[in-house]
Specification:
Layout lengths: L2 H18 L7 H14 L18 E3 L9 E2 L2 H11 L7 E7 L2 E8 L2 E7 L5 E3 L21 E9 L13 H9 L12 E9 L6 H10 L3 E2 L8 H18 L4 E8 L5 H5 L11 E4 L4 E14 L5 E12 L2 E7 L3 H6 L7 E6 L6 E5 L26 E4 L2 E4 L5 H14 L7 H9 L25 H13 L2 E3 H6 L8 H6 L5 H6 L6 H10 L2 H11 L3 E3 L9 E5 L6 H10 L3 E2 L7 E6 L7 H8 L3 E4 H5 L1
Parallel strand pairs: 2-11, 8-9, 19-20, 21-22, 21-23, 23-24
Antiparallel strand pairs: 1-6, 3-10, 4-5, 4-7, 7-8, 10-11, 12-13, 12-15, 13-14, 15-16, 17-18
Length: 617
């Protein structure tokens, strides 16, 4: 794999962790640096034409209008350069607003009523999270400023003064975890929705006016500032750094500057290619906040691939409202580069209020080369004591019998299979008691295996066994996407033409990074043994792609919940679509004579209109 592919691989994995989990894998600053490095090496890379990343195993909604990302600037002079580019005579009016560090979401309203809520996803399709509207009071059920089709966009976030127990983890991580929770959703009442944009059938001329309209309609909208001179941009940025950033109850990672008058958007965008971002808006990122602390030590974690992950343990500092005393060092090569010794003074950065990382070892600057002191050298696996091998920037344990590697593989499978009752402590206890030693052993468990183990009563045991049993019924793509192969998800497998176990085993195309990851995984005999052992216990159906009966859309209130209806549509052999285009076959309506905007559009382009009752009959 060449350098460019390595960087793209790292960025895609980081995107996946950021958008689809509650645990980002790297800091925002590290992410930005990787993007800058890729830009230097290959400015036209396809990576820059994508936004976010799609998640598997969720109900998708196609955005009516793409939710693109934002071009970035690090200083006010860069903002002024952008203004001179799009507006040489400074004739436009501008609007400045906070860039909230939350989860981007869109609320679709039709005929004044809320139809669904969706995340950004990959910018084209997002995850259906309509369930949050039941708990979040900032998302009104009805609006009065439009009877057509409008989308209200904003950020879901946990406020700084939240009463929710964050467990010391960053607010955004907790927010994502709450939104993805499948059960016990009452805690979603702690989540807020800050709205800032309206798109669609709403006759509003400026971005600043949209914010005022949202406030009048009961939304929790943002604070805005309208600069009148070029000097005002620097003044407001200084005010943001001095006070606004601390005063606002939402965490922010900068400001957004946009042309205020909407009529100018199309003209500005027409001058350049629009793929990753629009050109009439830009984000101004704040300088990174740094904290000094002293290193207490390093402890070593073993990943499911056997890579040894060093984690620095230091005197506590407070970052983004969280007490931080640990930071991943990512790999062993980084430990050596930082020349870490016990007691060293480290510079910990507040990388946009997400996970901390060590920017610099201040002590190493004044250390004499011969003064090695108490340096951290790792020679054996911290779990099994086995020999370590160099694997790029990592040290790697290749002992197939390493207990921690086995545990990490089981934990990954449990998480990806949705076994919420089977916690990490449960897996470790069962492993230590000799009840499980591999993923397939989960499917051998019986009630008697829990007898005499403290903390496992009748009710808990039954629930654990029930979840394990339910996970037996699965598909080939589900199994393959849960094996932990880097970047290999259901969507990627389908793109490679893999829809069955047989196709996976026969696959040998190394043209793409994902394909090479699959081939490398299969070349390890222990991985094939793992798959074979699982096939003996799982009830697997192939995901062979059959001809779809067509695309089906929905509008108005249906006879069941939205997700239930989508599942029934797909069970009948159709594909659900969240938007109406010339490719849509059928639009399901509560009332075929309602005259809604979506129905009128469907009639205009020749889409068949049916009631829910007639379709399901």
């Amino acid at each position: 794999m060449n350098k460019i592919e390595q960087i793209v691989n790292q960025l895609l994995e980081a995107r996946d962790a950021y958008y689809n989990s509650d645990t980002p894998s790297i800091s925002d600053t590290e992410f930005d640096e990787l993007e800058d490095r890729l830009r230097e090496l290959d400015s036209d890379n396809e990576y820059f034409k994508t936004v976010g990343i799609s998640a598997d195993d969720v109900v998708k909604i196609e955005h009516v209008r793409p939710m693109l990302s934002m071009q970035k600037a690090k200083t006010v002079p860069e903002i002024l350069k952008w203004i001179r580019k799009i507006d040489p005579g400074f004739k436009y009016k501008y609007c400045i607003e906070p860039k909230i560090d939350g989860l981007s979401a869109a609320c679709m309203y039709r005929n004044g009523k809320l139809e669904y809520v969706a995340t950004r996803g990959d910018g084209l399709k997002g995850q259906d999270i309509s369930h949050v509207a039941e708990y979040i009071t900032d998302i009104p059920a009805v609006i009065s400023f439009s009877s057509g089709e409008v989308e209200v966009r904003g950020e879901l976030y946990l406020p700084k003064d939240t009463l929710y127990d964050t467990g010391g983890r960053p607010l955004r991580n907790n927010c994502v975890g709450l939104i993805n929770r499948k059960e016990n959703r009452e805690d979603l009442r702690h989540v807020r929705f800050a709205s800032y944009q309206i798109t669609g059938d709403a006759d509003i001329e400026t971005e600043s006016e949209k914010v005022e309209v949202l406030k009048k309609n009961g939304f929790n909208s943002i604070e805005i500032f309208l600069p009148h001179t070029l000097e005002d941009f620097q003044k407001y940025f200084d005010l943001y750094l001095e006070s606004k950033r601390k005063q606002w109850l939402y965490e922010t990672d900068g400001l957004i500057i946009t042309v205020d008058e909407c009529r100018n958007f199309e003209d500005i965008d027409s001058r350049w290619v629009v793929d990753h971002h629009h050109h009439y808006a830009i984000a101004l990122k704040p300088p990174v906040e740094s904290y000094e602390t002293s290193l207490k030590g390093i402890f070593w974690q073993v990943s499911r691939q056997g890579n040894i992950i060093p984690v620095a343990n230091f005197e506590p500092v407070y970052i983004g409202g969280a007490r931080i005393e640990r930071a991943t060092l990512n790999n062993y090569d980084n430990v050596l580069k930082l020349d870490l010794h016990e007691g060293d003074i480290l510079l910990i950065e507040r990388a946009n209020d997400v996970i901390p990382y060590i920017r610099e070892n201040i002590s190493s600057k004044s250390r004499e080369p011969e003064n090695s002191g108490n340096r951290f050298i790792l020679e054996k696996c911290p779990s099994c004591g086995g020999t370590l091998f160099e694997n790029g920037v990592h040290l790697q344990c290749r002992n197939e019998n390493c207990n921690e590697i086995k545990i990490q593989k089981i934990l990954y499978w449990v998480k990806e299979s949705g076994m919420e009752t089977v916690a990490e402590a449960t897996v470790r206890t069962l492993f230590e008691k000799g009840k499980i030693a591999s993923i397939s052993d989960l499917y051998r468990l019986e009630k008697k295996d829990f007898e005499g183990i403290e903390g496992f009563g009748e009710k808990k045991t039954v629930k654990i066994l029930s979840e394990i049993e339910s996970s037996r019924n699965t598909s080939a793509l589900d199994v393959l996407s849960r094996l932990g192969i880097p970047l290999v998800q259901k969507k990627a497998l389908k793109k490679l033409g893999i829809n069955s176990i047989e196709q996976f085993m026969n696959f040998n195309d190394s043209s793409y990074v994902i394909g090479r990851n699959i081939i490398e995984w299969k070349n390890d005999r222990s991985n094939i043994d793992l798959l074979d052992s699982l096939l003996a216990f799982l009830r697997i159906s192939d995901d062979s792609i059959t001809a779809s009966k067509g695309l089906v859309g929905m509008t108005g209130k249906g006879p069941k919940g939205r997700n239930e209806l989508i599942a029934e549509i797909e069970n009948l052999g159709y594909e659900f679509t969240g938007t109406i285009t010339k490719d849509t076959g059928i639009l399901l309506c509560e009332d075929v004579n309602s005259g809604s905007a979506k129905l009128k559009k469907a009639e205009k382009i020749g889409v068949k209109i049916m009631s829910y009752d007639d379709f399901f009959k």
